[in-house]
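Minutes, structural biology subgroup

Action item carried over from last meeting: produce the C-alpha cell record for DUF6036 domain-containing protein (Brachybacterium vulturis). EB confirmed the sequence was re-checked against the source entry. Recorded below for completeness.
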Amino acid sequence: MKRQELAHILRAACDIAGDRRILVLGSQAILGTFDEDALPPAATASLEADIAFLDDPERIKADEVEGAIGEMSGFHLSYGVYAEGVHIETAIYLPSGWRGRLISWQLRSSEPADPHFLEPHDLAISKLGARRAKDLDFVDALITARLLDLGTLRERCAMIPDEHAVVRRRVDSFLASYDDRPC
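Output recorded by EB:
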C-alpha cells in the first residue's frame, strides 16, 4: 500500500463514519511516519489498513467502514486496497503510554480525515505480541532496514502491561536474537 492509497481509505472512512478522528493500528500505520519509498517491501505488502476511531466504544463506526470499504467490497475491487474496521482494543499488546506517542499526519490528500498512527516502535511491539509470521517478517524488515531502534524496542517491550508478561518474555526473546547479528 502507498500513502496516497491509505489517504484514499482514510477519506472514505471519514465520510462513511462521519468522524474525522481515525486511528491506523495495523502495519500500514508505518506510513504515518515513513514514505513508502523509504520502507522495505515487506512493510508495505499489505492491501488492508486496520483502522479504528478514537471515539467508537460500541464499534459501530468500524463496522460501517468494514461493510462499505472492507475486503471484497466495491471499493476493494476498484482500488485494490481496503479497510478493516477494528476496535482500538484489537491491539492488546501495546506498551503503556502508547496514546501519548501517536503520530499525526497532515497530508492534504487525506482531508477531511484527521488520522493518527501508532508510533513505529509501539506498532512493532504490538506486531511482535501478535506473533504471526507476517508480523515477525514485518518487524524484522524494519529492524534490518534500520528504521527501528533496538534499544527503544527493548524499552517499549518492558512497558507491555504485566497482564501480558508471557508476551513480554516472547517479545524480549525475539529482540535478543538480534544481539548476535552483525551491525
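Discussion: Helices lie at 3-17, 60-69, 74-79, 120-130, 133-144, 150-157, 165-176.
Next step: EB to file the record with the rest of the batch.
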